[in-house]
Each structure stands twice: as structure tokens, then as C-alpha cells.
């Protein structure tokens, strides 16, 4: 019985992994079968359902049994933040973050990294810094932490809460902001270099509808996409009280239309309408193809940072609340997601059959990346060309899963990877089907 459950769970995780790494997805009408847990139901729809986890609670058997049963994405509530991971300058401590990461991996869950930079929860030594010293310390921090967790993180909150509340729609004042307006893009570029396989997110609160704050963030994301600053996703914390703005879904969709994924990252809802609002938020995410999933900010009401507001899905004893039922029911009646058709069916418009033959050749260096039970990463560095096309061959029965920092198209066992403005280090995730042979480079052409 236990084995059958493990097999079912692993099939679901494989499905969610395939869909989540496939890039663009579209919504199919109709729905999959009814899942009996949040994570399983979300996975059947190509999404995840996650929770914030506190390392100090991993010895609590009620907490851990709900965690393992219901969730397939985990965020460290505090343990991967700057004050936790670098308590004194250049002295990194990962024990509690690693406990959470190991627990998640053991349960087949993915991990959202939270958060590489934030004006809050900085160690005292960083709070007292400014200017170029702080900028260098930030870069060093991101490089170390993202490198430590390289290959383990589904998405990183690279920058948390950098925009001001109110009607102004500007940046929040902070020691990081005072190092120069470009600190956010420096943070994203640094994170990309350290962990090219993680989706890189901007994360904030009070961004749950179209308002001056969310629009200021929208403008930044649009600017980043236009200028090739590496950003992959936007997190909407969604700390809500009794209601959700009527344009919640439309707001998620306008960000998705910029070409980034969206994620509900810290959901908790207080008030008498709690159950209904959980259902509304869940349906909104499912209605947006690029909404990867939902994370609630804790398991039981007693685990919440919002003391006394009971904003979560389980009561203090670990019983399912009405809000749990509306959430699961919204998941179970939601549409399914399907990866977009193989890009070989829609060739890149930049290469037409009448294009002249490409110019000179370039060279590649391959490096093995993270390996999972079912798939593995390979990092490829191109030298000798600023703009390139690389063709790699997979070894059947391997299949292409996804690429980062390159645009991919697939034809048989050949994958063509084209420069996409994100530099000369790119990578490919290969579905192994039992064969972990590295992809072989067939050509590297300067274009
Ligand atoms: O661990 C110490 C404990 O040793 C000490 O005795 C106690 C005394 O105050 O403090 C404990 O640390 C607290 C920590 O949570 C762990 O419980 C901190 O004081 C407290 O400030 C900290 O609060 C966290 C808060 O971020 C800090 O801003 C919350 O747990 C955490 O849920 C919350 O999470 C944030 C997200 O990261 C970003 N978005 C908003 C969200 C809610 O504020």
C-alpha cells in the first residue's frame, strides 16, 4: 500500500516536474481527477502547493505529518535569509536552511529559496554598512548562498519587498536602495551567474491588485525584460484580510503577459470570509497559465506569524479547516495545464530557410550540473562568439526537458539552442529515461 502511494506520488512529481520545467504552458479545458491532498491535486494540474517551514518545528510530529502529506513545495520561513545564513561577514551558516532543504528533498518536495536580499532581517554588520562596501557585501552574499543551494532551488526570491507602499509607486528607502538604483538588477545578474537553473523572482506584498505599487513593479519587470536583465518570475505574497481585490487574476495575468511566471508566495487570509477567499485566490492562479503554484505562509494557525488571526488552512490541532476544503475543491475543479507544443513545430522567426549560412565557429565547454532521479542538468559555456547557435545530440531514449539562458527547439534527438540575450553560459535539462550520458555538442556556430 505504502509502495503504491510512493509510486503514485512519484508519478505526480514527475508530471509536475515536466510541466514546470517546460517553459510556456497553456490551459486545457476539462479537469484531471480529484486529488485528495493539496500537493497531489495541484500537481495533477501542473502546479505545486507549498508552505513555509520553520526548522524549529521539524521535530513536531503533527506538523511534519501534515507537511509530508499535503505539500510538494517548501519555503524556509526564516532560515535562508541574510541574518540566518551570514551572521558575521563572510561567515556562512547553512545548518537550519539545509535541514529544511534535506527534509523537502526527502519528501520529494521542491524548494523556493527565500530571500537573497531584503531590507529586513539583515545581520547587524550589514545594517551598519553603506555604499560600495554594502554593494560588494550583497554580491558576495548572493554568490555564496545561491552557489551553496545551486541546483536545489526551483525559484529564488532574489529581491524581497523593494518597493514602497502608498500612492507614489517608487522604491522603498533602504541601505540597499541607497547603494544605487541598479542594485536590483545587479542582484538578479549575480544570482543568475551563481545558479543558472533556478527561476529568479522579485517578491512583494500589497501587490494583489492593479495599484501604484504593483504597477511600479510591473514597469521594472518590463524594463528588465526589455534590457535582458535576467528575471523569470514575480512573487505575490498575498497576506490578505477577509477579501481579495477583484482584479487579482487580471493583475497576475498582466505580469504573465510580460513573459514571466507568477507565483503566490506567502498566502494567508484572516477574517470571516476566509474560506471563500482561499477558493477565489486558488481559482485565480489556476486560470493563469504561468501561475506556477501557491505557497501558504505556514501550516497550522498556531504556526502563523499573524498571531491570533488564524489565517491558515489547519487549526492549532492540525485539523483541516473550511478554508482547506474550499482550496482543495478549487484545485480539484480547476483546469489542467499542458506544456506548449514542441518548438520544432513553430520555428524561431529569427532563422528563416533563406538565411545565409552562419559565420565562423565557436567552442563550448560542458559541465555536469545537478542530477535528480529522473533528469539532469548540463551547463554549456560558449567561447568565441557573442551570438551563437549550438546543436546538441541527446542519447535515446533521453528527451529534452528545458533550457535556461537559451532558446531551444527540438528535432528528433537534436536540440538547437540559440543565444537569447542572457550571456554565454546556458544549460539544458535532459529527461534521462535511465541514461545519464551528457548531451554531445554537434556544432557551435557564430550567428
Ligand atoms: O528565533 C528567535 C528566538 O530565538 C527569539 O527568542 C525570539 C524573540 O523575539 O525571536 C525569534 O526570531 C523571530 C523569528 O521570526 C523566528 O520566530 C524574530 O524575532 C521574528 O522577527 C521573525 O519574524 C519573521 C518575520 O518574517 C521577520 O520579518 C516571521 O517568522 C516570518 O514569518 C516573516 O516572514 C515574512 C517574509 O519573510 C517576507 N514577507 C512578509 C512575511 C511576514 O512578515
Report on this model:
The protein is of the alpha/beta class. It is 30% helix and 26% strand. The chain contains twelve helices and 19 strands. The chain has helices spanning 2-20, 38-44, 61-70, 82-85, 95-106, 124-127, 131-148, 183-194, 212-227, 248-256, 274-287, 322-332, and strands at 25-28, 48-53, 73-76, 110-118, 155-160, 199-204, 233-236, 239-241, 261-270, 291-296, 336-339, 363-371, 375-383, 388-393, 399-404, 406-411, 414-419, 425-431, 440-446. The chain has an eight-stranded parallel β-barrel, surrounded by six helices. Strands 12-13-18-15 form a four-stranded antiparallel β-sheet, with no helix packed on it. A hairpin with a 2-residue loop joins strand 16 and strand 17. Helix 7 (131-148) runs parallel beside helix 8 (183-194). It is globular. The protein starts with a helix and ends with a strand. The model is unreliable at 1-7, 9-23 and 339-357 (pLDDT under 50). Ligand G3I binds next to loops. Ligand G3I binds at residues 77-78, 120-121, 160, 205, 237, 266, 305. It catalyses: Endohydrolysis of (1->4)-beta-D-xylosidic linkages in xylans. It is an enzyme of class 3 (hydrolase). Its EC number is 3.2.1.8. Residues 32-330 form the GH10 domain. It comes from Rhizocola hellebori.
Amino acid at each position: 500500500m505504502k509502495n503504491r502511494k510512493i509510486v503514485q506520488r512519484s508519478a505526480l512529481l514527475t508530471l509536475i516536474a515536466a510541466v514546470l520545467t517546460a517553459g510556456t504552458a497553456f490551459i486545457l479545458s476539462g479537469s484531471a481527477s480529484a486529488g485528495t491532498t493539496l500537493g497531489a491535486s495541484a500537481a495533477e494540474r501542473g502546479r505545486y502547493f507549498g508552505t513555509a517551514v520553520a526548522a524549529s518545528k521539524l521535530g513536531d510530529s503533527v506538523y511534519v505529518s501534515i507537511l509530508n502529506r499535503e505539500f510538494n513545495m517548501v519555503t524556509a520561513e526564516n532560515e535562508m535569509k541574510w541574518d540566518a545564513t551570514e551572521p558575521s561577514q563572510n561567515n556562512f551558516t547553512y545548518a537550519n536552511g539545509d535541514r529544511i532543504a534535506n527534509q523537502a528533498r526527502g519528501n520529494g518536495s521542491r524548494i523556493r529559496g527565500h530571500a537573497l536580499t531584503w531590507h529586513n532581517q539583515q545581520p547587524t554588520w550589514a545594517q551598519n554598512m553603506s555604499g560600495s562596501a554594502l554593494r560588494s557585501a550583497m554580491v558576495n552574499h548572493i554568490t555564496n548562498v545561491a552557489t551553496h543551494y545551486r541546483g536545489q532551488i526551483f525559484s529564488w526570491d532574489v529581491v524581497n519587498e523593494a518597493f514602497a507602499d502608498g500612492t507614489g509607486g517608487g522604491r522603498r528607502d533602504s541601505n540597499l536602495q541607497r547603494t544605487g538604483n541598479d542594485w536590483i538588477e545587479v542582484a538578479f545578474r549575480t544570482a543568475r551567474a551563481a545558479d543558472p537553473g533556478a527561476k529568479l523572482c522579485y517578491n512583494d506584498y500589497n501587490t494583489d491588485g492593479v495599484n501604484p505599487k504593483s504597477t511600479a513593479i510591473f514597469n521594472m519587470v518590463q524594463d528588465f525584460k526589455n534590457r535582458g536583465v535576467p528575471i523569470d518570475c514575480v512573487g505575490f505574497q498575498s497576506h490578505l484580510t477577509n477579501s481579495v481585490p477583484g482584479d487579482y487574476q487580471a493583475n497576475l495575468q498582466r505580469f504573465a503577459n510580460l513573459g514571466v511566471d507568477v507565483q503566490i508566495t506567502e498566502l494567508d487570509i484572516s477574517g470571516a470570509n476566509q474560506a471563500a477567499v482561499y477558493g477565489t485566490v486558488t481559482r485565480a492562479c489556476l486560470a493563469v497559465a504561468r501561475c506556477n503554484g501557491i505557497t501558504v505562509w505556514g501550516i497550522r494557525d498556531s504556526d502563523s506569524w499573524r498571531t491570533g488571526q488564524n489565517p491558515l488552512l489547519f487549526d492549532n490541532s492540525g485539523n483541516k479547516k473550511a478554508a482547506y476544503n474550499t482550496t482543495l475543491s478549487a484545485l480539484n475543479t480547476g483546469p489542467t495545464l499542458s506544456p506548449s507544443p514542441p518548438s520544432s513545430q513553430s520555428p524561431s522567426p529569427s532563422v528563416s530557410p533563406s538565411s545565409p549560412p552562419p559565420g565562423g565557429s565557436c567552442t563550448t565547454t560542458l559541465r555536469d550540473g545537478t542530477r535528480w532521479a529522473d533528469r539532469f542538468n548540463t551547463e554549456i559555456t560558449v567561447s568565441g562568439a557573442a551570438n551563437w547557435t549550438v546543436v546538441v545530440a541527446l542519447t535515446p531514449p533521453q528527451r529534452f526537458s528545458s533550457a535556461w539562458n537559451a532558446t531551444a527547439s527540438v528535432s528528433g534527438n537534436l536540440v538547437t539552442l540559440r543565444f537569447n540575450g542572457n550571456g554565454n553560459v546556458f544549460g539544458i535539462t535532459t529527461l534521462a529515461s535511465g541514461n545519464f550520458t551528457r548531451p554531445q555538442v554537434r556544432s557551435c556556430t557564430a550567428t
